[in-house]
Amino acid sequence: MRVFLFLLISFSIQSQTILLKGKLIGEVSKEPVVYANISFLEKNKGISSDEEGSFSLEIDKELLQERVHISCLNYNDTIVLASDLQNKILKLKPKNIELEEVVLTKKVEREFVVDKYRRKDIKSGFGARQRNPWIVTKYFKPNKKHENTPYVKNVIVYFTSITGRRKSKFRIRLFKIDSITGNPSDDIIKENIIAHSRVRDGKVEIDVSKYNIEFPEEGFFVGLERLHIPFNFYEYSYTMEGKGRKKYVAKAVSPTFGAAYTKDTIRIFSKGKWRKYFYPKEFYKGNSIQPAISLTLSN
Which helix (H) or strand (E) element contains residue 2? Predict the structure, then answer.
């Protein structure tokens, strides 16, 4: 009888887990919406759509009645119930985008690097557990030193240890600053910029020179958007101290972005909203952390 009851309980628990799956397409273009981030608003759980606009995520059945936030470059943010996504195709509304005129001029090559990091400057990281997709940002202030090199040529992103540099994909975002809230607002670049990390590289340079971006007078944010796609998933094992030293296996998402000390508050986008992040800690010597990102400016 006890065996039967145990099997019944086990079956009941297992039956409550389902696979949430669906597809995202553009309402106008009818094309797949690639690398959209899908997050439960009240839970630390989420996924990203793949190259076909499809996604799948194992969830508890009760989460079908929870709200889900969907965000992607060039599309309006959308909030629906998880049940509205289950085995369905959801159409996302595109943002009204006005293309700015690009004036091409011949420039004499001169460069200036903003916030160059060395390996010893990388003190921590942003990653790596599988929870919600997010965007972590760093704000670049205007400076008189930039006057002779006003154009953004490269964005340089640093990573943590070899484990954090696994082969992976992530999205680069450049944001204007909201004059009222101080949060990131509109995208400066409307095009998808997908960067790749490799195990052997401690950093990656993303060339944005073709966009002729002049350093805004009010400054701007560079955002690193983590993509929860199978290509980026991996597992690692760790041991808990104490009796028995039991070994555990955890799921993670690569890459782990390098972090450096800061006294500034940064902004992180998660679960449909921008949040301030400033948590000075004793083992950070009283500092908080921000993503290790450099800029190469040119004239």
Answer: helix 2-15
**How many whole angstroms from its chain centre is CA 105?**
33
Helix (H) or strand (E) holding 7: helix 2-15
* Alpha carbon separation from 262 to 175, 224, 280, 286, 291 (Å, rounded): 20, 17, 9, 9, 9
pLDDT confidence bin for 101, thresholds 50/70/90? low
CATH number for 14: 2.60.40.1120
121 and 88 share one domain: no
Range of the domain at 24: 2-92
CA dist 49 and 229 (Å) reads 7
Q: Is 195 exposed, middle or buried (0-12, 13-18, 19+ CB in 10 A)?
A: middle
0.90 surpassed by pTM: no
Least confident segment among 28-32, 123-127, 211-215: 123-127
Reported as a pLDDT band with limits 50, 70 and 90, residue 4 is very low
H or E stretch at 58:
strand 54-60
- With a CB cutoff of 8 Å and minimum separation 6, the contacts of 118 are none
Q: Are residues 153 and 67 in the same domain?
A: no
